[in-house]
Each structure stands twice: as C-alpha cells, then as structure tokens.
Amino acid sequence: MAKLIFINLPVSDLARATAFYQAIGAVKNEQFCDDTASCMVFSDTIHAMLMTHDKYRQFTTKKIADAKTTSQVLLCISADSRAEVDDVVRKAGSAGGVIDPSPQDDYDFMYGRSFEDLDGHLWGVNWMDLEAMVKGADAPLA
Q1: Which residues sit opposite 99 in a β-bridge?
Q2: Residues whose CB falls within 8 Å of the CB of residue 33, separated by 6 or more in sequence, listed in order
Q3: Which of 62, 83, 89, 132 has the fewest CB atoms inside 10 Å of its own CB, making it the most exposed?
Q4: Chain segment 105-125, per-residue pLDDT in tens
Q5: Global pTM value
Q6: E strands, the chain, where?
Q7: Could you tell me the strand order of the sheet in which 5-11 lies?
C-alpha cells in the first residue's frame, strides 16, 4: 500500500482557506471535515488538513507561527506538465494568493513556480522530465 501524507496547516479562516484550495484544484473530502477542519485532497496519497487555530492547538503546545512573517516549511507538489504548473499558480493568484514569491526554476528538465496561500504558507509547484534529468545528470545546472 502506498504511504499517505497529510499536511496539517493552521488557517485563520477555514471557509476562505477551503475555497482557496478548491480553486487550485484540491477536492474537499467531506468524510474528514467539520466546522474545525477541512481535508483537501490533491491525489490518492496527498492531503492537506486545514485546521482552525483552536483545532491545531489540540496537536501541539507550541506557538502557531505566522506564515506571513516567518517560515518553517516549504511545501511542494508535482505537476504533469509546464502548463499545469502555470495553471495551478494562476488559479492560486485568482483565488487571492500571492504568485511567485520565490524565484522560478526553469531548466530543460525541470520547471517550477510558487505561491503563498491566504495564510502565507509557501507552496512550490514543479514539473520534472525525469528522462531528460537522467540524461543530463553529468551536466552542470547552469
């Protein structure tokens, strides 16, 4: 069985955060949602659990970082093409996110862009041509 990943993110407005992730293509799994959390499904193996701050505090006694002013983690999700990378980032911008807060990656074998969600969590979206990467493994990146 494939391993699953659940990314737990504290959000300031659950309804707005849920709508944002739906706008970029995640699907809400009602089975794991209530008025304190939304389970957003990116694929069979990748889920983001959006939690109110009160819900998130049930899992840790540590202070919740303000993702707009501090950074603890950079999240990245793969795309099937360069066009899909651009599409996801465009959708993030249209839904109120910040597009391209990080430098873009643009190589023959890899293309990546980024966005911040409404709470400042930083996401990368990357496409890689694994065959081209293997062929060019001995070549320098730049």
Answers
A1: 115
A2: 39
A3: 62
A4: 999 899 999 999 999 999 999
A5: 0.85
A6: 5-11, 27-28, 37-41, 46-52, 75-78, 98-99, 105-106, 110-116, 122-128
A7: 5-11, 46-52, 37-41, 27-28
Supply 63's token pair. Answer: 């202070």
Q: Which residues contact 56 (CB under 8 A, 6 or more apart)?
A: 8, 10, 64
Each residue's pLDDT tens digit, 14-23? 999 999 999 9
Neighbouring residues of 86: CB distance < 8 A, sequence distance ≥ 6: 113
Whether 77 and 24 have beta carbons less than 8 Å apart is answered as no
Burial class (CB in 10 A: 0-12, 13-18, 19+), 121: buried
> How many CA atoms, within 13 angstroms, populate the side-chain half-sphere of residue 34?
2
Q: What is the DSSP string of 40-61?
A: EESSSSEEEEEEEHHHHTTT-S
- Calculate Rg over the CA atoms of the chain: 16
The structure tokens 């300031």 sit at: 12
